[in-house]
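SUBJECT: protein chain
CONTENTS: sequence, structure tokens:
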Amino acid sequence: MDSVPGLDLSQPPFDLLDDAGRARLQASVDVGFHAAGSTLIEAGKASPHVHVILKGLVHAYQADGQGGEQRFADYGPGDVFGAWAVIAGRARLSYRAEGECLSFLIPAEVFRRLIDDDPCFAAYFNEGLATKGQLSVSGSDRREAAELMGTRVGEAQLAPAERIAAATSIAEAAARLREHRVDCLLVDDADHQEPGIVTRTDLLDAVALQRLPLEAPVGPMASRPLVCVGSDEVLFQALIEMTEHRIERVVVRDRGAIAGTLGIAEVLSHFASHSHLISVRLARAHTLEDIASAAAGMNELIRSLAAHGARMPYLMGLVSALNGRVMAQIFELLVPAEHRGRICLLVMGSEGRREQLLKTDQDNALVVADDLDWPGLDEAMARFSAALDAVGYPPCPGKVMVNQPHWRMTASQWQARIGHWQRRHGGEAALDLSIALDARPIAGDPALFAPVKAGLVALGQDQILLHHLASATLNFNTPLTLFGRVRGDARGIDLKKGAIFPVVHGLRCLALRHGVAATSSIERCEALTERAALPRELGRDLPQALNVFQRMRLDAQLAALQAGRVPDNHLDPQALRRLDRELLRDALHVVKEFREHVRRAFHLVD
């Protein structure tokens, strides 16, 4: 296919487009002339085009508020800019022609459609990852990529959509599950136009946790509305829907009619020949060795999904679900059934926020019922921590683990610890509190965690505590020079300290102040924006910036693993292509703006 004259479509990022995308680009691209000193894009405004420079030089700059300006970068022939302004709807910098300049003009609506239609192209721009090396694969990897991204839901093995009446008893419903070998039932109710759904877990919870009699009807426990996918949608989209809604089964519709149900096990079973897809093996694991064997494929699963265009929120959600499943299964192996209802296992840190990707240090804790009488608790938790280490989750250097009495407390001891955190505003107490604020239950009885969570949320009323807690947001400088360029040392920049931590911790503190119970950074950001605790534009830019950082860090970590190095949080900006550096720089400016917002909100002094 011929390129637009002068615009090389074989170069990144346009080499990621399929033939249809390139044809659409060819039909719409134009060439613009820009006089010397003219502004191509103005900071704070949307751009009608994405620019690719054909001839000349363009300066990116920002007004300093005192009549001057800071210059951030220069763009020459072949460079692409304006993608952020089109995606986010607002440019963070202004762009001015230095001398006469020619640029290819890609209309914003065409660019957005290319992103919507092509997940590989979208991954490059939406999350700033230089994906050419990962996406331009060959041989079996290419076939797997095509299969993963091209297989339709209707081609998968669907489970039959077994239907029952709302008046059906729990006992009868359980018998139907066993008889038809399914793990969910659709529930028809005259009071609802569409059916609801009950799962095997719903029935177990009704009996074990709610203490409902076996004769109780299933109608009231049915979930609505149904989460559905079309039979003509790609199978990967079903995986995304399950991850986004934090469920393991969706209903499949074919031309509007319910054709069956599809679970994560069926999705991954369809790719059973792919050794890195682990969910089915995990579902069949009954020993610690089985679990370790299944979990060993986690990094390859992440590598594959990332390379094939999976969006970061969905990828992190899927990994979190699998991690939680691994930990819960080990917990059930080591904790006798008679004691599971008297303890609650918590995960914290990035795992608690559902923002974990590659396996890192253990961050977990335990809530123990005040009246639990189990002499073997200490030994069981020691074995649990050792088992996680064996499976690939190394011990936490700070010893935030259930094998430590400091993080293994009764419900009363948790309340006392929360009181201690309220009285002590710095040092280890502040660090422990920050970790605990991201806690969520994954095994045992979650009801034990409810009063602990309520006690943590109540700390948001203490303004002095919040002031001291939020000050950590300013502990690490944003890696930008006075002139707005990315700044690093011999190892590059530490994305965790300089980029991710200020956003994660700032959102954590704002969420605590405003009573937001969510632990995910993205969910915190959305809730704070809805409550006007964050400016709407900043609330829109922060998730995008986090995705940029997470994607770039993951890319660097996977490259380190492939090279036989230990992955860390460092990134070499000079190894990035110009467009990636632009996205990184824009994302770092979001961090800088957010730090200023946190500083003003909590009256902090740097």
